[in-house]
Structures are given as C-alpha cells and as structure tokens.
Task: structure prediction
Amino acid sequence: MYFFYYIPVGLDIKVTKRAFVTRFLTATAVLLFVMLKYMPYTNGWNPVNLLFFPAYPSIASALTHAFVHLSWMHLIGNMLYLVIFGRPLEDRLGAGGFFAVFALSAIAGAYTHLALARHFMPSLLSNAVGGASGATSGLLGAFMIRFYYSRIKIAYWVFMPLQVVNRAGKTTVPAILAVLFWFLYQGVYTVMQFGTGSVAVAYGVHIGGFVCGMVVALLIGASKSARRERHLVKARAHFQNADWFSSQGEYSNYLEYSPFDPEAHAEAARAFLCTNKLAAAADHFAIAVQLLKRNGEKGRAEEVFLQAVRNIPFFKLEESEYLDMAFGVERSLKFYRASEVYESFMNIYPLSKDIPLILLRLAGIYKGRLEKPGKAIEYYKKIISEYPASEWVGFAGLELEKLRRNNFVARTVAR
Result:
C-alpha cells in the first residue's frame, strides 16, 4: 500500500486582530458536536434536521450542515483548517467578508454535491451531508487568492513499502503549490467517488466550496489587496537577508498603495538607516509617529520616536509635537531616554520659548531620578543666567539654593 498524507500546521502570516468570527464558528461546531454525542434527542432537539439532504435541498440546511460533525476526527480535521486559515482571512477580509466566504462556500459546496449526484448517481440523493469541509474548502480558495505569495508549514507522512520508504516530518512549502495539490487531490477523488458510488466523504462539496471561496474573494477585492501586501512581504524578506536596497524599493512600492500604514513606514525607515539614507529614514519615522498618534497608539508612537532620535541627530517633528513626545517619554518613566530627547530638542529648536521649561525638566530628572545633582545645578544656573525673564527663574533659584545647602551639609558631615 502506498500512502501520502499531509496537513497544514502553520502559516508565515502575521495576524494583528482577534478573530472573533472564527472563534464563534469553531465554538458553535464544537458545542453542536458535544450535544450530538451526549444530549438525548427530543422533539425539540434533533440534529438530523440540520443536515443537508440532496433529495430535499434548502438554503438553510445547506448552511447549517457545516456545523454538524459525526466523529471527533471529522470535527478536529475541519476545525484545524478553520482556525489555521480562518484567522488570517478574517484579519485581512474583515469579519463580514470572512463570514461571507464561509457561509457561501458551505452553501455552494452542498449544492455542488447535489448537482453531481443528480447528474452522475441519483441514488446518492437520499444520503445526508454534514460537516464544515465545504466551508473550509472555501477558505482555502479565498486563501489562495489573498495569500498566494505565502508559505504553509505542513506535517507529512510518506509510506512506500516496496521502496522501503516510511518518512514523516514537517516542512514549509509555497502556499499556491500546497493548495493546488490539495485541489487536484479532491478532483481525483471526486471522479473516483462517483465512479464507485462510495460516499464516505462528499468530495464534490470540497470542489464547490473551493471554487466559491475563490470567486467571493475576487469579488471583494482580495486579489488587489494581495498584490499590495506581497510588496510588504518581499520587503521584509529582503530586509532579513540584508538586501537593504531591494527592501527599500519594495517598501516604497507597498507604501504607494498603503500610505497610512505606520508600521510599514517604521520598517522602511529602518531599511533606509541601513544604507545611511538618513533624510529618507527621518521622513518615514516622522510619518510613522504621526500615524500612530492619530490611531491612538501613543506608547508605540513613543517607541518609534525614540528609535528616530537615537539614530538621526537632526530628526524633527513639529515643535509642539516633538515636545509632546518628549513629555510622553518622561511620563513613561524612561528618564535617561527623556534626558536625551530633551537635549536633542534644545539642539534642534535653540530659539524655542520652551527652552527654560526643558532646562527645568532636565534639572528635575538629574536631581530626583538620575541622582546627579551637579548636572541639576548646571541647568538651574543656566535658567537664571540665560533666561532671566523666564517665569521659571524664581523656582530655579529656590531649587538651586536647596541643592547648594544639601551639598554643603553633605560635605560637612563627610569631614
């Protein structure tokens, strides 16, 4: 007996949102299976009513049959595909688009089986169909449109007794190759099934669901989104391989399509830093900071801001915006970084009316946080000598007197 089997176990796609619809669909299928196995049937509860009967088709049962599974292996196999491929699809297509793919593929798969059975083997019309394989096949179809450039990690088992081959393991393959091989496999078994009359697995459901998933994905613009994101994927791959110039080109191509992606701007900035193109890096860092702030991600904006300040001496934002970010860094208790940012602010905006306040903040950090009273005294003196008209002069004088008195007491005690 020759045997080859493989299942997907992972993807190289970054998911940033919680997949609520995927979780809901998975939980519903599991709950119904538990009820089917352990809850006695009553007049009000009969899971047979949820199955799809080709002899008595309905749109409702063409959808509900996707949640009814007859064994643990049947359930686990379908839920594995739902979770692995559902999460990235829901992340990119949105909850509505993802559910449309799932539901329409389940319905299309059921009616494809009906059409094949009616045409090739009418005796199969009386057999009920259950399981989410039509819907998950649709997810595979949509996946091939939306993520054709990705790679799938698979676990495989090859058994060839005459060649003394019994090998199992894991490997990563191009998504388009894995999915197309799966589709070919389903097509062959569909033909074999209707030739023998075996209905252990309704392979026609898989074919119909897969094609429907592709069509729905195309209709909601997944192909265009895929071409755009492919630039980002290639940019990251070039960056990891230290191919900085190619990475810069791919980031630029991606940002032409998606100019409001702050993380891509931050990544592009780092790519430009690697070739010492500081002006381009500064532009991308500035855009990333502004977009992150607009999105309400203040903490992340501060992280990107600090990267920019550390790597680009002349990095600039609008003066008020730069100062706001500096205050945010200090509020985050990153006092050493805050001192660096304040110093950079004074170098970039030497004529700012807020310089006395910055000197005061620096003195406070060195006095109370970094325990360098000598530096604090230096900044207090600078306020008094260089900005005598400032509203902070009086306060600086009082603090300077306290520091001098404390230093005098410390020296006296030491003697």
User: Anything to note?
Assistant: The chain has a mean pLDDT of 90. The two ends are 94 Å apart (CA to CA).
